[in-house]
Design a protein that fits this description.
alpha+beta; 4-stranded antiparallel beta sheet
Amino acid sequence: MEPVIILGTESEGVSVVDVGGLHGSAPDRALVQVSANGLRATRWVVEYPDFRGLVKYFTDLERRWRGWSGTKTWISLEGDLAFTATHSGSHVDFSVSVESTLAWKVQVELSIGAGEDLSAARAEVARLFER
């Protein structure tokens, strides 16, 4: 599978490198890559029974593209992948972290447009994880 960029770019962003699951079912694991400032961290993230919660998270952000108060967060089952979003007028600012609970944590800050860019991110997440 070719990497699918969810946020940002391949060199400064969040991508999904691979997905896995039982034949015919929605993926329940994803190889997530976070890149920034020359650093690249990759981690298999498991979500049970699947990543529907992440799809709903991005769908909710897209529906509220005109803005919301405070932060909106999604955290994976084991806490090794987290998205936090705030709305700043015409942009959505994300803080995304990937971690190995015993060894390391990488966090990147990304900003995307609240309209088409956010819709494109939601579409990629849905394409990857909805079956």
